[in-house]
Design brief:
By secondary structure, the chain is of the alpha/beta class. It has a single domain (11-247), classed as TIM Barrel (Alpha-Beta Barrel), CATH 3.20.20. Helices cover 42% and strands 15% of the residues. It has twelve helices and eight strands. It has helices spanning 16-29, 47-54, 80-86, 96-101, 106-118, 131-135, 139-151, 156-159, 180-198, 200-205, 219-223, 240-247; strands at residues 5-9, 37-41, 59-63, 90-93, 122-127, 163-166, 207-211, 230-233. Strands 1-2-3-4-5-6-7-8 form an eight-stranded parallel β-barrel, surrounded by five helices. α5 packs across α7 (139-151) and α7 (139-151) packs parallel to α9 (180-198). It binds 2-phosphoglycolic acid. 2-phosphoglycolic acid is lined by residues 9, 167, 172-173, 211-214, 232-236.
């Protein structure tokens, strides 16, 4: 059984001052909630304060990126070693915003995934097609290429520690989530690629998330699909009550 995983990707939002009440409220709203694994990924500047505030809670810490060197003359970058040391368990890698605005290519992303695994961080590897690619009927081809770049470095023994997130680019921040059926179809395909490469056992163990305009109203239908194991959530993770409702999607009295 794969435990559901909900990840809040804050992107470039929230100062330290703004992060404190958000995290404090989250720990309160989600206190003792253990049905779902919960991860928040604040910007680097808020990681320390987040770690302090969540230390006795059921919330885990993640970062939004890393650089693939250990340390050295790489002005402006943050290493996996630093993230491990500050208390991160997860790191988002290959987000489409990084691919698009910061020209990260598949090779860079694969190196980052390797580095994360070497330092005991679980990578959340994002893949997904553009609207044009979906309309052209090549969505699966795009996702396959992105995933295969990761497979080229991902060792069988490490594969079970990876998390994938299918995030169709046209659904991110647009309010237009993929239908549960479309998300399921692609995630099922992704699991098949995992099976072909690493075998059935690993494919059934790896969690695959959906991301793109997830909110408390559409999460339940998405989670009802057999291959969707959780969500990578942007906008709806920036308000404590909204994210808490989303995390508790399966609770009849999940109202807070
Ligand atoms: P969104 O972002 O939930 O705001 O669409 C998701 C993401 O980019 O991870």
């Amino acid at each position: 059984m794969r435990k559901p995983l909900m990840v809040g990707n804050w992107k470039m939002n929230k100062t330290i001052t703004e992060s404190i009440p958000l995290i404090t409220d989250l720990t309160e709203f989600l206190k003792d909630y253990r049905k779902t694994e919960i991860v928040i990924c604040p910007p680097y500047t808020s990681l320390w304060v987040a770690r302090e505030l969540i230390q006795d809670s059921n919330i885990l810490l993640g970062a939004q990126n890393l650089y693939f060197q250990n340390d050295g003359a790489y002005t402006g970058e943050i290493s996996a070693r630093m993230l491990q040391n500050i208390g991160c368990s997860y790191v988002i890698l290959g987000h489409s915003e990084r691919r698009e605005y910061f020209q990260e290519n598949s090779k860079d992303i694969a190196r980052k995934v390797q580095q994360a695994l070497d330092f005991g961080l679980k990578p959340i590897i994002c893949v997904g097609e553009k609207l044009k690619e979906r309309n052209e009927g090549i969505a699966q081809k795009v996702v396959k290429e992105e995933v295969e770049a990761i497979f080229s470095i991902l060792k069988p023994l490490d594969a079970g520690r990876a998390v994938f997130a299918y995030e169709p680019i046209w659904a991110i921040g647009t309010g237009k989530a993929a239908t549960p059926r479309d998300a399921q179809d692609m995630i099922k395909y992704l699991r098949k690629l995992l099976k072909d490469k690493y075998g059935k056992k690993t494919a059934e163990q790896v969690r695959i998330l959906y991301g793109g305009s997830v909110n408390p109203d559409n999460i339940k239908a998405l989670m009802a699909e057999p291959d969707i194991d959780g969500a990578l959530v942007g906008g709806a993770s920036l308000q404590a009550d909204t994210f808490a409702r989303l995390v508790k999607y399966n609770d009849s009295n999940g109202l807070i």
